[in-house]
Specification:
- There is one protein chain.
- With 327 residues, the protein is of the alpha+beta class.
- It folds into 2 domains: 2-198, Jelly Rolls; 210-313, Arc Repressor Mutant, subunit A.
- Helix content is 50%, strand content 21%.
- The protein contains 12 helices and 11 strands.
- It starts with a strand and ends with a helix.
Length: 327
């Protein structure tokens, strides 16, 4: 069975609500706050494979959480394997935060509190499985729940390729085919996790992932710096910087760019908030310094950037209304 939903098929005023309903229908129940946006662009494609569900989502920025009410609404225990195809996503859980970027995957469970934040345009694939199917594989690595794994090579890439192929496969697999597909996917998952955790060459990548998780949790702290991150992770500054350099970027640049991206996001999602309030919220202690940094990153002063984006959004809405009035 294959289902497709696109928010473009809904009136502009209903697009975000339709997206929230689609997410809850395919990914368990979520509390997703309302957004003050003129339009919301998102698509969901899903396919049932045996007792599991494959979902490919593309969406604009959004966020949500699973609290007590949402956890109690789950009919059965499910595990989600989340693969980022394009963009990034942050998961917040009692153990901390997990920051995922393209080419990485992680796992989450429907029985545990969780929140997500999508800061920009995102495309992802989620494999929803009954927990009894996947728990024998994940149980030995339970302390790595929410850990980031690599889907760019090895068994992680094989697993992702298989899941994407199943989503796109025409026709039906039949009961035996679905059973074989789920079994082979679980075997690849076990090999991907065991192989990565036992591979010393991935140590630098795991250190970068841990650092990015810590940075995401502490972005609001103006004192956040390379030394603080290294100290919190129990490594030297040199070792941390070498790990980031191997990945093609730096710790300080990561802190800088993440703070600016959070500011850019909140400027558009919270037009009633002042620019200084948003800048201070995300660790900038000087408004003039924030303005210069924002201009360097996005090519315009914060006030002009916000005004142009919000005006463009309002104009898009006015054009749609005018078009409907003429038909």
């Amino acid at each position: 069975m294959r289902d497709v939903l696109t928010t473009a098929s809904f009136p502009t005023a209903r697009q975000y609500d339709a997206w929230r309903e689609a997410v809850c229908a395919t990914h368990e129940a979520w509390d997703m706050p309302s957004q003050r946006v003129a339009a919301f662009h998102g698509t969901v494609r899903s396919r049932s494979v045996g007792a599991t569900e494959l979902i490919v989502c593309e969406s604009d920025p959004c966020s949500g959480r699973r609290g007590a009410a949402e956890l109690s609404a789950s009919a059965r225990e499910m595990t989600g394997l989340l693969f980022i195809l394009e963009g990034s996503e942050q998961l917040s859980h009692p153990e901390g935060d997990t920051f995922l970027r393209a080419g990485q995957f992680t796992s989450w469970e429907s029985t545990r509190p969780l929140a997500f934040c999508v800061p920009g345009r995102l495309r992802k694939l989620t494999w929803m499985l009954p927990s009894e199917l996947v728990s024998p594989i994940l149980r030995p690595y339970e302390r790595y729940l929410h850990h980031t794994f690599d889907a760019r090579g090895g068994c992680g890439a094989l697993l992702l390729n298989q899941l994407q192929a199943m989503v796109e496969l025409p026709g039906e697999l039949g009961p035996l085919g679905e059973q074989a597909a789920v079994h082979s996917g679980l075997e690849l998952l076990a090999a991907a996790i065991a192989g990565e955790l036992g591979n010393p060459s991935r140590e630098a990548e795991r250190l970068v992932a841990r650092a990015e998780d810590y940075i995401a949790r502490r972005l609001e702290d103006p004192a956040l710096c390379v030394e603080l991150v290294a100290s919190a992770l129990g490594v030297t500054r040199r070792r941390l910087e070498r790990a980031f350099a191997a990945a093609g970027h730096s710790v300080s640049r990561k802190i800088w760019s993440d703070r600016l991206e959070r500011c850019r996001r909140d400027m558009l999602l919270e037009p009633e908030s002042s620019l200084s309030e948003i800048a201070f919220r995300w660790g900038f202690s000087d408004a003039a310094h924030f303005s210069r940094a924002f201009r360097a990153a996005f090519g315009a002063a914060p006030s002009r950037y916000r005004a142009e984006r919000l005006d463009a959004s309002d104009e898009s809405l006015r054009c749609r209304v005018a078009a409907r009035c003429q038909t």
